[in-house]
From TrEMBL:
It is an enzyme of class 2 (transferase). NCBIfam families: pyridox_kin. Residues 93-276 form the Pyridoxamine kinase/Phosphomethylpyrimidine kinase domain. Pfam families: Phos_pyr_kin (PF08543). Gene3D superfamilies: 3.40.1190.20. Keywords: ATP-binding, Kinase, Nucleotide-binding, Transferase. Its EC number is 2.7.1.35. It comes from Sphagnum troendelagicum. This is pyridoxal kinase. Transmembrane segments: none annotated.
Length: 309
């Protein structure tokens, strides 16, 4: 039976998130996929756009601007000058250059000086399906520096392989990769996509106390006969949001996040079908219908459950 998350256990307000991710004028990836869901879950969100593009890169033409590291630091200095740099969370997504990523580490240090309890949720966006979205020189920076600074890490299979230098083909491989990442720094790791036997598996791992073995689990969802953009960005945002409500229960947070994402995808497919759109109609059919899915985000029905491993 699906369990309804009702209003009396909504997320408490008061969390403040600084979200450093990409921005598109049209469509829902990066900050466009993260800010609205986090606001629905009760957070104040301050977005910094690492890039500002007309649309995501799946379209034939992309126009826009790229923020550099010094411009990022200028924004942080402005926040600090007005005593506005007190955040409960920092979340980072797509970052296109080593210099910008190095500056993000300085941002983490400054924000943790203002709030030592800052939770840093890192989606190490590097690529997927065997291909890099970014230049490979970002990989050692993530491996050697960023992972150690993160509280929660949300790589996909491709990214987890490059962060751990191990091939991930099985559930056991993914669990070992999570342990490798825990040894580097983050107490919470969620590998957001592992394609096994024509199903998608989400692997979660949580070290609740230093020196203890992690609590590990999996959630299995069906593979939909469609492609979407922004799902990883949405998943990371929802994991942040529900982990704030359930800080000691990553399984529960992941169940809510995964069920919500799947509901958004189904809603998107229904809206596309009603509008007469399809995969054959082009990339425009692949945009998430986030606004129309506000109830699925704020009040998710738990339809996918964690299995302890």
């Amino acid at each position: 039976m699906a369990a309804m998350v009702t209003a009396d256990i909504e997320l408490p307000s008061g969390g403040r998130v600084l979200s450093i991710q990409s921005h598109t004028v049209h469509g829902y990836v990066g900050n466009k996929a993260a800010v609205f869901p986090l606001q629905l879950l009760g957070f104040d969100v301050d977005p910094i756009n690492s890039v500002q593009f007309s649309n995501h890169t799946g379209y034939a033409t992309v126009k826009g601007q790229v923020l550099d590291g010094e411009q990022l630091w200028t924004l942080i200095e402005g926040l600090e000058a007005n005593d506005l740099h007190h955040y409960t969370h920092l979340v980072t997504g797509y970052i296109g250059s080593v210099s910008f990523l190095e500056m993000v580490l300085r941002v983490v240090e400054k924000l943790r000086y203002a709030n030592p309890d800052l939770i840093y949720v890192c989606d190490p966006v590097m690529g997927d399906d065997g291909e890099f979205y970014v230049t490979p020189d970002l990989v050692p920076v993530y491996c050697d520096k960023v992972v150690a600074a993160a509280s929660m890490l949300t790589p996909n299979k491709f990214e987890a392989e490059h962060l751990t230098h191990r091939c991930i083909e099985t559930e056991a491989d993914a669990l070992e990769a999570c342990c490798d990442l825990h040894d580097t720094g983050p107490s919470k790791v969620v590998i957001t996509s592992l394609d096994i036997d024509d199903k998608i598996m989400i692997i979660g791992s949580h070290v609740q106390s230093k020196g203890m073995a992690p609590r590990q689990f999996k959630i299995t969802v069906p593979k939909l006969d469609s492609c979407f953009t922004g799902t990883g960005d949405l998943m990371t945002a929802l994991l942040l949001g529900w982990s704030y409500k359930y800080p000691d229960n990553l399984e529960k947070a992941a169940e809510l996040a995964v069920s919500s994402v799947q509901a958004v995808l189904i809603q998107t497919l229904k809206i596309e079908e009603k509008a007469g759109l399809s995969q054959d109609g082009g990339v425009k059919a692949l945009e998430l219908c986030l606004i129309q899915s506000h109830d699925e985000i704020r009040y998710p029905k738990v339809t996918f459950f964690a299995e302890s491993l």
